[in-house]
TrEMBL record:
Protein name: Response regulator
Sites bearing 4-aspartylphosphate, chain numbering: 54
Keywords: Phosphoprotein
Any GO BP annotation: phosphorelay signal transduction system
Source organism, top-level taxon: Bacteria
Pfam families (alphabetical): Response_reg
Residue intervals of the Response regulatory domain: 3-119
Classification via Gene3D superfamilies: 3.40.50.2300
Length: 136
């Protein structure tokens, strides 16, 4: 299964995104966290296929969580940064190649990119499920 952690301090956005993933990508194991501090132990535990972080959060912002995840061994190409800021700001602070994607969470076209990422993980989980079924 593809394990995803989504960290966002906006409970409405977190609930909407969590419900969307659960309804449309049933093979993905979804963990949501509205408190960045609570996400630290989940990140440290490892085993995440994708980490989706809100950039602007109290206590620990997304940039600090990103750095923590990378320092604990997570591949930065498995991390997506979300923000309400414009794309110029985001790309200046997270240049191409820094992580999988940096997306404005309110732009429809950029939501499509996130959907492509979820879809890809779901297909990989489906393929793993098929391999497991055949090996039994």
């Amino acid at each position: 299964m593809g394990k995803i952690l989504i960290v966002d301090d906006d409970p409405v956005f977190l609930d909407l995104l969590g419900a969307f993933v659960s309804e449309n990508y049933p093979l993905l194991e979804l963990v949501t966290c509205s408190k960045p501090v609570s996400a630290l132990s989940i990140i440290k535990e490892g085993g995440l296929d994708l980490l989706v972080l809100d950039l602007e959060m109290p206590d620990i912002d997304g940039a600090k969580l990103f750095n923590f995840a990378v320092e604990t061994g997570m591949d930065p190409k498995r991390i997506v940064i979300l923000s309400g800021r414009d794309s110029d700001y985001l790309h200046a602070n997270f240049p191409l190649g820094t992580c999988l994607a940096v997306l404005n969470k309110f732009e429809v076209k950029q939501k499509a990119v996130l959907e492509m990422v979820f879809s890809s993980l779901n297909r990989k989980a489906e393929a793993r499920q098929d391999v497991d079924a055949k090996s039994k």
